[in-house]
Amino acid sequence: MGAETVIPVDVVRNLGVYLDSELSMKQHVAEVASICYFHLRCVRQVRRCVGKDITIRLVLAVIMSRLDYCNLVLAGLSQSTLQPLQRVQNAAAQLICDVPYHKHITPHLHELHWLPVCSRIEYKLCLTMYNVHNVLLRHVAAGRYTITSTSSVLRRLVELRRAATLDEIRRTGVYPFWSSGMESISERTRQLSSLSVFKRELKTILFSRSFA
After folding, report:
1. Which of 116 and 139 is assigned the larger pLDDT?
2. What's the whole-model pTM score?
3. For residue 79, what pLDDT is reported?
4. Buried b / exposed e across 84-123, counting CB within 10 Å, b at 16+?
5. Cα torsion at 92, 93, 95, 97 (round to 10°)?
């Protein structure tokens, strides 16, 4: 570029997300898992002194927040790729509930009311689509935001908001955005006008599905 020689690299970091040359996200998953295990070891050292309630707060602040950060970039990855992050969550639940590693962890995830990693990604997808469909596009329709000629995706999402059936949604050209999250929940839930109610019902749906 100009007089400079640009040397390609296998992995770059942007806003804390590691992007590899194949976009497999394996490097990002490995980095997140590594830093989470480091903080888990630190929390484990004070677990006996601070008690369960403070341990939960510490884990939510330094572990779960990292698992949730930019997790939309992990949508569509295989279970095997996401497994290191699920193991981190399992280890965090074992630390909080003070159970040995050989014990089955699912009952303790249920007790903590934690969605598994894959469901947390689906939750974020549904919430993002809800916000686009019911908040952003409402402002566009009211004239608060302007759609430029280059905003083809946003223009199609405006069409999506007007679409009444799944067949019409498929014809808008943005069906992959919709089907990655919102199609998995009921029409009644999708049409909820309150964000707080939507979030509560969405978590209930995903929680029931994960621990059925």
Report:
1. 116
2. 0.78
3. 92
4. bbbebbbbbbbbbbeeeeeeebeebbeebebbbbbbbbbb
5. 160
